[in-house]
Amino acid sequence: MKISSRELLEAPLSPHEARWVGELADKLPDDVDLTFEESKILTRLSIREWPDALVLKVKDAIDIEDFLVEDPDE
């Protein structure tokens, strides 16, 4: 059974996800904050599903290439 993006975003963050997002947030400028929804998007959805505004928000704190995965369907 495939879980929808909406269902993925409803569950609370796991301790591992919260730790990862915390480390990412520490790399962001002081005037940039992540919402809980953005944290869930970053940890649970493919980068191709991230809103453009979120990509722009974190682009300097992450290596985008690390998030790109070969998609055999393309």
Topology:
Blueprint (H helix, E strand, L loop, with lengths): L4 H6 L4 H13 L8 H9 L7 H7 L16
Description:
Helix content is 47%, strand content 0%. The chain is mostly helical. Helix 2 (15-27) crosses helix 3. It starts with a helix and ends in a 16-residue tail after the last helix. The model has no long low-confidence stretch (mean pLDDT 85).
Please name the defining characteristics of this protein.
74 residues; mainly alpha; 47% helix
Strand tally is 0
Overall 3D geometry?
A: globular
Mean pLDDT: 85
**How large is the radius of gyration?**
13 Å
Number of domain units? 1
Largest sheet: none
H-E string: HHHH
Structural class per helix/strand content? mainly alpha
Low-confidence regions: none
Distance separating the two termini = 22 Å
* Proportion of residues in helical segments: 40-55%
Q: Specify the number of helices.
A: 4
Give the strand content.
under 5%
Short description:
By secondary structure, this protein is mainly alpha-helical.
